[in-house]
Write a structure and sequence with these properties.
It contains one helix and nine strands, in the order αβββββββββ. It is α+β, with helices and mostly antiparallel strands. It folds into two domains: about 40 residues; about 110 residues, no CATH class.
Length: about 160
């Protein structure tokens, strides 16, 4: 009798542990689902109130990097700079950095392995979404560019300059 009762208690405890684990996993799954459905992903700059300031193309011509000056929000209350990458093979847009307009200027420099975002003022004013990004190549495979920041005293690209034709 003692062995049967002990086995019964063990089974109940084990069942409660599995029930608790199932409830926890269900709550986590629902939380992730709600987060994914409610997270704000901005429209690409081509569909927003954004003006291009600078365009850089990767050395293999498979991705383009854009610097835009944008106004966003319901009342267009936020105005600033946004750095976007357009992955040409997949036709995908990815925002990689933002900075308020009042924080000074931003400009882009690119080489074979790295995108450098040159900026004025505090690094705290520059929000970087990722430390690198991957883009596919037409012939197969993919390339990665790392993202670095560099503080400069003066940007060569001013806010009033237009893109060359």
């Amino acid at each position: 009798m003692g062995l049967l009762r002990s086995l019964s208690d063990f089974t109940k405890r084990l069942g409660l542990w599995f029930l608790a684990a199932a409830i926890t996993l269900t709550v986590l799954f629902i939380a992730v689902l709600i987060y994914k459905l409610s997270v704000f992903e901005p429209e690409p700059p081509s569909a927003s109130n954004c003006q291009p300031l600078q365009v850089q193309t990767t050395t293999d011509s498979e991705a383009q990097l854009f610097l835009y000056q944008c106004q966003r929000g319901n009342d267009l209350g936020w105005e600033g700079y946004e750095v976007w990458v357009h992955k040409l093979v997949t036709d995908e847009w990815q925002r990689i950095a933002t900075s308020p307009l009042a924080a000074g200027c931003i400009e882009l420099a690119i080489d074979e392995r790295q995108l450098t975002i040159r900026h004025r003022n505090s690094r705290g004013d520059l929000s970087i979404a990722a430390t690198s990004f991957v883009y596919e190549r037409r012939g197969g495979g993919a390339n990665t560019l790392s993202i670095a920041t560099e503080r400069v005293d003066k940007c060569l690209l001013s806010d009033q300059e237009e893109l060359p034709d």
